[in-house]
Amino acid sequence: MIPLPSDGLVSIAGRSPRLDVETVEAVVTLPTFKRPEQVLETLASLRAQRTGRRFAVIVMENEAEAREGAGAALPLFERGEMQGMVIIAHERGNCSAYNAGWQTAILHFPNFRHLLVIDDDEIADPDWLERMCMAAETLEADIVGGPQVPVFADVTQAKWADHPVFAPPYRQTGRVPALYSSGNLLVGHNVLTAMGPPFLDLRFNFMGGGDSDFLSRSAQRGFVLGWCAEAIVREAVPARRVEADWIRARSLRNGVISTLVEKKKRAGTPLAGAKVFAKSLALLAASPFRGLMRLARTGSPAIAIYPVHVALGRVLAEFGYANEQYRQPEKN
Predict the structure, then answer these.
(1) Residue 12 gets which letter from DSSP?
(2) Strands 225-227 and 26-32: what pairing?
(3) What is the CATH number of domain 2-240?
(4) What ranges do the domains of the chain cover?
(5) How far apart are CA 71 and CA 317, in angstroms?
(6) Which has more pLDDT, 321 or 135?
(7) Predicted TM-score of the model (pTM)
(8) Which among 76, 81, 167, 262 is least buried, having the fewest CB atoms inside 10 angstroms?
């Protein structure tokens, strides 16, 4: 068992034979929770990567009892069809799973340069890993994000692709001022060693936003952020996620996360709490006008109401509201 600081225990379920850890240049971390079929599809897309770089995969099983994802993935590693290892992150929660995988990468692969993240409901394009690594090197960026292209369960739902909940924050490759998601991400080894474990704040474990907080803190430390528009992963979007109540809950949650991340960023500065609250109130006051502008531009009431929900979420966070969507993953 490997003790992780402030983050429970991790056990290694299995690893590929003759794994040469010294030569691994990139490590791909893949958290999974009750998606055995989908994690196999994600792994198949990683096996199909077109790259000359030596890379290994760490699957982080975060369902420590049935372990369906680990059970599905482990044979691929034990047969040597996939290089890397499968671990069990016994501490339940989104941030706990990421922390377990990232710390395992540091402990077991001493010479890797790039750590990449993909989720178990995503499929990587064949050139994904190479393009992410090349972007980091070309842009001289310490952290690189990429687009998560939604693949909807019903083709008639494709209109939702432009909604801010699903749309990427950037359209062109280059350096960027901020990143928000770990769903398609590259983090340099230098960032992980500087930030130190636990990398993601466990207070975000069931809400989400631990990645956004980590990225904000990394930028604050001076690390350079980049975006690679060509490094695509395709994210399966179940029908549940285009229902009005799910979209509303996710929008409110985004506002809550925005407040919590900004409070941590301003911590220790004069009147930090008052300034964050004042900003939230100002955004709430402006949100109807911002919504009308979006309505005029897109013709979509769902897109128009988004800034209202985000601003409302920011204000509600001041009164302890927290939408922990990952607490009941079957409803997420």
Answers:
(1) E
(2) unpaired
(3) 3.90.550.10
(4) 2-240, 244-331
(5) 39
(6) 135
(7) 0.93
(8) 81
